[in-house]
Amino acid sequence: MEKSFIALPERPGLGVEMSDAAARQTHVQGTRWLDPMGRG
Predict the structure, then answer these.
(1) Residue-level pLDDT at 35
(2) 4-39: burial string, b at 16+ Cβ within 10 Å, e else
(3) What is the model's pTM?
């Protein structure tokens, strides 16, 4: 933060990275979040 404002990122995106390992560890059976095409 700078003077009560959040600085805009210089690159596109939200500035966060997805952890595939953490997503797989917390995956709920019966949901297709990890594979939106429903292949597995």
Answers:
(1) 65
(2) eeeeeeeeeeeeeeeeeeeeeeeeeeeeeeeeeeee
(3) 0.40
